[in-house]
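Practice problem: predict the structure.
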Amino acid sequence: MDQHILTENILKQIDLTKEEMDLFFSFVKIKKVKKKQFLLLEGDVSRYALFVVSGCLRSYCVDENGYQYIQQFAPEGWWIGDMYSLVTGKPGYLAVDAVFDSEIAMIAKTDLNRLYTEIPKLNIYFRVLAENALVYYQSRAMENLRLTAKERYERFCTRYPSLIACLPQKQVAAYIGVTPEFLSKMLNQ
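Answer:
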């Protein structure tokens, strides 16, 4: 794996020595996943933090009618997972799968806890990630409550400019909370 993208992501927030970075990467597992391959199913206990090196993942839940509600897309350089399950150790609510063939870096929760002790600066990095995730999810919740479908689509385009042209319209619709038919009609007006 080219460690550059994850290294760059970390160094935006904290400074690590070469030795600290080497120790960090000694706990990172790399996995190639195929399009539509699951990394986590609803009801699984999440044991890993997932970082997208290349490709794209998504997290979502499915209702009793089979309709998907996409919570997040994670293109290259983003973290993703079921935070509830990862933090509590309880079965989660989200599925995570690959939108495209992808390469991911995985760090076990148990290894993260060890790294927090051995490299205390990582506490700051992951605290910043958690704060950013909280802001993201709060913004998403408020957008879904307050914005029109068109405004939610515009926010999607701003948040994920690299995905606009390559995602199936069905997935964009599931992210903004409308049917694919409604999205198609809206975009053709």
